[in-house]
């Protein structure tokens, strides 16, 4: 018997079977789910509203004993539930609607961005993060967690500093934001030549892979760790191996 | 039968095939009183995400991943940390009544000497019965990454089972290359 097989003998749920009453409650909950607005019965414009109402209603009852936060309507967000540690690359053309949603918040005007202005775009579940050039020289990062709600947050990035040394990265922006949908953290920075991959290691061991393009990297995740001093580690991969840094060690 | 009925029928079949495993998954991680509600919330998220399309071929790790995200969000909000720990392993008192008493007690002690991150990786395979590919799906990482984390966790478990051994740091999420 190997170590994993030995461990399996300690599983307290190994012989657990729900009783008839519990199964009945589960079936009733399933039927309530079908009565909530579902994607098959809603148009796109109503779907997200239906989601919020549905999840809020269930979670207020369902998770009330877990945390008071659920009772205030601060339920887990759909974007967070669909979040993935590995991003999906998005073409500039596909991310243009989100970039233009971001531009709606630019108070100093200027022409709307084009696909050529999008430096980097990624999706994790339903949420989109884009780095958009502004006025030809400036660069903004922008989150669209929910297309229905528009831009959730944006930040102006410094583009004047020289690129980091080969194989090194610089952290240009990091932090955590708590909106009506809970905490989310982000880190954005520059990558020197030869950097092949950047990952953010969270305290629970989750490895969040950053998007990397044209010398910039960006990642976000549900949680507040980005707002904690050296609350994560930045792992930089090159052909020669990997190095791990505290954010303060590579701060711009 | 209309379109909605077909989608509901598919989802009922998915629920029937996965309910007990998902409930066990959640009960391993939070108190029993809260487990039913998290399971219901996970199915609600799954229903909303699935729409009218067919369920994924391997629905179990997909649902586990949804439930884990719900638990992680709750955990982050309550505890300001993102660990989805495996709360309940048979404790020493229970082990004391079982055959192979000493070995089981040692195993329980070694288990709790590990970091929560190590426990989660081990539990996905040893308790939840997932393959490395499925477990990687749940954690949102690549298979190679999961294999590396699993191997490290198994090594630390073996070290923890050796008496008077200096263990590597229990919280090993940060590793300099």
UniProtKB/TrEMBL annotation, chain A:
* Basic and acidic residues bias spans: 12-22
Which keywords annotate this record? Membrane, Transmembrane, Transmembrane helix
Regions that span the bilayer: 49-71
Region annotation (Disordered) maps to 1-22, 159-183
Q: What is this protein called?
A: Uncharacterized protein
**Record organism:** Paractinoplanes ovalisporus
TrEMBL record, chain B:
Disulfide bond recorded as keyword: no
Tell me any Pfam family this protein matches: Sigma70_r4_2
Answer yes or no on keyword Transcription.
yes
Recite the UniProt keywords alphabetically: Sigma factor, Transcription, Transcription regulation
Q: Where is the RNA polymerase sigma factor 70 region 4 type domain?
A: 114-157
Q: Which InterPro entries match?
A: RNA_pol_sigma-70-like, RNA_pol_sigma-70_dom, RNA_pol_sigma70_r2, RNA_pol_sigma70_r4_t2, RNA_pol_sigma_r2, RNA_pol_sigma_r3/r4-like, WH-like_DNA-bd_sf
Domain (RNA polymerase sigma-70 region) spans 20-80
What NCBIfam families does the annotation carry? sigma70-ECF
**Recorded family membership:** Belongs to the sigma-70 factor family. ECF subfamily.
- Classification via PANTHER family: RNA POLYMERASE ECF-TYPE SIGMA FACTO, RNA POLYMERASE SIGMA FACTOR RFAY-RELATED
Can you name this protein?
Answer: Sigma-70 family RNA polymerase sigma factor
Name the source organism.
Paractinoplanes ovalisporus
């Amino acid at each position: 018997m190997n170590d994993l097989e030995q461990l399996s003998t300690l599983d307290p749920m190994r012989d657990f079977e729900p009783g008839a009453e519990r199964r009945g409650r589960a079936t009733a909950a399933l039927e309530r789910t079908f009565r909530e607005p579902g994607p098959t019965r809603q148009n796109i414009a109503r779907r997200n509203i239906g989601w919020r109402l549905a999840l809020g209603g269930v979670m207020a009852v369902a998770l009330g004993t877990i945390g008071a936060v659920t009772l205030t309507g601060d339920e887990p967000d759909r974007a967070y539930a669909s979040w993935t540690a590995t991003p999906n690359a998005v073409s500039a053309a596909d991310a243009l609607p989100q970039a233009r949603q971001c531009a709606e918040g630019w108070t100093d005007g200027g022409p709307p961005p084009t696909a050529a202005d999008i430096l980097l775009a990624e999706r994790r579940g339903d949420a989109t993060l884009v780095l958009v050039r502004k006025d030809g020289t400036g660069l903004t990062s922008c989150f669209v967690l929910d297309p229905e709600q528009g831009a959730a947050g944006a930040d102006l990035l410094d583009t004047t500093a020289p690129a980091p040394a080969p194989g090194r990265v610089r952290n240009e922006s990091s932090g955590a934001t708590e909106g009506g949908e809970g905490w989310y953290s982000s880190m954005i920075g520059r990558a020197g030549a030869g950097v092949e991959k950047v990952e953010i290691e969270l305290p629970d061991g989750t490895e969040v892979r950053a998007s990397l393009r044209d010398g910039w990297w960006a990642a976000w995740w549900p949680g507040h760790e980005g707002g904690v001093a050296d609350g994560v580690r930045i792992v930089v991969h090159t052909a020669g191996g990997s190095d791990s840094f505290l954010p303060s060690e590579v701060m711009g | 039968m209309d379109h909605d009925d077909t989608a509901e029928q598919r989802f009922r079949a998915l629920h029937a095939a996965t309910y007990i495993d998902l409930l066990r998954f959640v009960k391993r991680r939070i108190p029993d009183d809260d487990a039913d509600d998290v399971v219901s919330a996970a199915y609600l998220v799954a229903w909303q995400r699935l729409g009218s399309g067919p369920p994924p071929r391997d629905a179990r790790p997909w649902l586990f991943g949804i439930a884990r995200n719900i638990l992680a969000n709750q955990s982050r909000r309550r505890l300001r940390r993102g660990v989805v720990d495996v709360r309940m392993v048979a404790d020493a008192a229970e082990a004391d009544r079982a055959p192979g008493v000493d070995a089981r007690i040692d195993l329980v002690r070694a288990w709790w000497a590990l970091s929560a991150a190590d426990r989660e990786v081990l539990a996905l395979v040893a308790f939840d019965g997932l393959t490395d590919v499925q477990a990687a799906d749940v954690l949102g990482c690549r298979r190679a990454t999961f294999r590396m984390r699993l191997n490290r966790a198994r090594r630390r478990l073996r070290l923890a089972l050796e008496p008077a051994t200096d263990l590597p740091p229990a919280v090993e999420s940060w590793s300099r290359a």
